[in-house]
Amino acid sequence: MPSPVSLNLNYVAPFVADHEWEQLRPAVSRAHRLLHTGTGAGAEFLGWLDLPEKGNHEELAHIEKTAVRIREYADVFIVIGIGGSSLGSKAVISGLNHSFHSFLHPKKKNSPDVFFLGEHFASDYTAELLEALDGKSVYVNVISKSGTTTEPAIAFRIIKTWLEKTYGKEEAKKRIIATTDREKGALKTMADGEGYETFVVPDDVGGRYSVLTPVGLLPIAVGGISIQDLLAGARAACREYNEEHLMHNQAYQYAAFRYLMYQKGKQIELLSTYEPKLTNFCEWWKQLFGESEGKDGKGVFPASATFTTDLHSMGQYIQEGRRHLFETVLYIGKSRNKIEIPQSKGDEDGLDFLSGDHLDAINEKAYQGTMLAHTDGSVPNLILEMEQLDAFSLGALIYFFEKACALSGYLLGVNPFDQPGVESYKQNMYALLGKPGHENRRAELEERLNEWA
Ligand SMILES: O=P(O)(O)OC[C@H]1O[C@](O)(CO)[C@@H](O)[C@@H]1O
């Protein structure tokens, strides 16, 4: 099956000359070979590359079996994780599930509500979630590749305490599933000690590339989404975006386009969508590209917008602000539902010219009008089209971006698989919190804070 993702370069022609594509071809081939021979920077994290092809059947069966059990007994499933340990499943679940799942009548739900925790230190969010759990049957998946990330670790301590108080220690253990490293980290030690059911984050897959491992697949399956379809889409993409030649590989064309834009001073990429269900997908994409490329003083800054909503807040800037933007539009051909604009007697609102039209058709005109306007305003628009939003298409889109991102990182000359810069805030935070071993830094930071107070 071909990939359902299609790259439309028609509208970027005014911004990139044919010879620019051609001149980039050898660099793309070089980057492709670094990736496929495992000789580039960070090659120890290439496990995602053929993951959809390899397919670990035993593991998938385990995920599906666990998901069936949780779906049968849980009202609420809490995913505890941050970054790559939560963004992927959140993107897919909110992309494919009912937008108002929590408010559906219980008889209409075929899966628990999935809530996320451990993505920040916000007290009110945490307290309100705990309040919402009252009287519900709750299961928890705590996910951390390192097993030591502070946000999810604290969230887990809070939820574990709640579970033990609510169900007793033994029953709580049966409601906790840990997804972490095969052998190391505090979470692994705790899971072994308590006897939690566990899933493994492969050593050779970094957090932001892990959505198609148990990290993403268990929450997605609990959310009632076919992980087989998701993986089938990723497999189709894996086969399709395997060509070395730039002109035969749309994932590479996307990466090359970003590179050319960056060279021309377009330092910000706006991933826009006309489908609010994809807002969280954009968040996943931001981590993928931001953490992969933003280093060594380089990198396109990944931003996102949901249209037409954000045209009424950011539209002015996009149209006429500083010209350092290019845009990648995620465009979905048709929605699952058709909504017709009703007739209205008297036409007081002047909208009768739209009576009988469908919202999808109006959304399409909004997209076309915006794309032309932004292009006129020197914001090049590259379009990624998908016929429909389903698990197969989303699986393909995930892989499309993963492949493009890795290649893009090599084109830029960075290691697309590490994230050393994230440590800076963590070290400061540990020091300020008084974590043992950070005493000297604490004194120094507190002095600076006092100077600035
Ligand atoms: O799964 P972990 O190890 O808790 O990490 C969560 C996230 O934190 C980071 O390591 C950054 O600190 C990301 O790369 C990662 O996705």
TrEMBL record:
Alphabetical GO biological process terms: gluconeogenesis; glucose 6-phosphate metabolic process; glycolytic process
E.C. number: 5.3.1.9
Compartments, as annotated in UniProt: Cytoplasm
Keyword Isomerase in annotation: yes
Record's signal peptide: none
Catalyzed reactions per annotation: alpha-D-glucose 6-phosphate = beta-D-fructose 6-phosphate
Metabolic or biological pathway: Carbohydrate degradation; glycolysis; D-glyceraldehyde 3-phosphate and glycerone phosphate from D-glucose: step 2/4; Carbohydrate biosynthesis; gluconeogenesis
GO cellular component: cytosol
Keywords: Cytoplasm, Gluconeogenesis, Glycolysis, Isomerase
InterPro entries: G6P_Isomerase (IPR001672), Phosphoglucose_isomerase_CS (IPR018189), SIS_dom_sf (IPR046348), SIS_PGI_1 (IPR035476), SIS_PGI_2 (IPR035482)
Enzyme's top EC category: isomerase
Main location: cytoplasm
NCBIfam families given in the database record: PRK14097.1 (NF010697)
Family affiliation: Belongs to the GPI family.
Cited function: Catalyzes the reversible isomerization of glucose-6-phosphate to fructose-6-phosphate.
UniProt-recorded name of the protein: Glucose-6-phosphate isomerase
The species this protein was found in: Salicibibacter kimchii
